[in-house]
Write a structure and sequence with these properties.
The complex is a heterodimer of chains A (116) and B (115). Chain A is built from no helices and eleven strands. With 116 residues, chain A is an all-beta fold. The radius of gyration of chain A is 14 Å and the shape is globular. The chains are: A mainly beta (116), B mainly beta (115).
Chain lengths: 116, 115
């Protein structure tokens, strides 16, 4: 069964450093998402991406964040200058709006980002 | 804006007990409703969903019915097992066809099932 994959599973970085989190969505899906979950808190929407542009973003997704689909398979989240409060689990998800379940998002296993 | 409210956890049950996790929502229009499950150390897995009023989603013995009149989507299971121990998230999405349809999650309810 197709699945969303994410790398790395755990990323440790120093405050102020740039990080890139990588995701490979399900191949025929058209919408891509990033969410984050700070330890012990709810899952929060960051951004959605469609047709090579951002379709919606939350207040959390400020100028320090960017997303890119550099090729036909990868979807990345970049944090330019990490802060301590960026420490969280970051989930990628994808959705096929033309499929049998057009409103269902499928999640990857997550990348745990630790900022020291 | 859209929001989801879940009952506080943790919920601790004995094996074979009946489970209910309450979920209510506030939304514009007619959202789709979901339950996701997060097992220890893992990501989010879709458990079940319902897309319109009176729909019942079911999977692995879990059920939830989309109740528009009470804006609720409570999760139930008749007989829980130790392997059901996890965090359960209620979520909604709403948007125009072809729109972003971001998910709005509740805070999650931790379920612990003991022998």
């Amino acid at each position: 069964e197709p699945e969303v994959t994410q790398t790395p599973s755990h990323q440790v970085t120093q405050m102020g450093q740039e990080v890139i989190l990588r995701c490979v969505p399900i191949s025929n899906h058209l919408y891509f998402y990033w969410y984050r979950q700070i330890l012990g808190q709810k899952v929060e929407f960051l951004v959605s991406f469609y047709n090579n542009e951002i379709s919606e973003k939350s207040e959390i997704f400020d100028d320090q964040f960017s997303v890119e689909r550099p090729d036909g398979s990868n979807f990345t989240l970049k944090i330019r200058s990490t802060k301590l409060e960026d420490s969280a689990m970051y989930f990628c998800a994808s959705r096929d709006p033309t499929g049998y379940y057009p409103d269902t998002q499928y999640f990857g296993p997550g990348t745990r980002l630790t900022v020291l | 804006g859209n929001s989801v409210t879940q009952m506080e956890g943790p919920v601790t049950l004995s094996e074979e007990a009946f489970l209910t996790i309450n979920c209510t929502y506030t939304a514009t229009g007619y959202p789709s409703l979901f339950w996701y499950v997060q097992y220890p150390g893992e990501g989010l897995q879709l458990l079940l969903k319902a897309t319109k009023a009176d729909d019942k989603g079911s999977n692995k013995g879990f059920e939830a019915t989309y109740r528009k009149e009470t804006t609720s989507f409570h999760l139930e299971k008749g007989s829980v097992q130790v392997s059901d121990s996890a965090v359960y998230f209620c979520a909604l999405s709403w948007g125009l066809t072809g729109g972003g349809n971001k998910l709005t999650f509740g805070t999650g309810t931790q379920l612990k099932v003991e022998l």
